[in-house]
Amino acid sequence: MVGKMKSLVMLTRPPNAILMFIAVLSGILLSESKVFQPDKLLLSFATAYGLCGSSMAFNDLFDKEVDKINAPWRPLPSGAISDLDAILTASILALIGIAAAAATSIPCLLVAATSFIAAFAYNARLKKTGFLGNMIVSVVVVAPFIYGAVLSDGYISPRLITFILPVYLSNLGREVIKGISDVEGDAVRGVRSVARIMGEDFAAKLGAALYVAAVSLSPLPYLLELVGWIYLPIVLIADVGFIYCSLSIIRSPTRENSLRVKKQTLLWMLIALIAFISGAL
Question: How many Cα atoms are found within 13 Å in the side-chain-facing hemisphere of 278?
Answer without folding.
Answer: 13
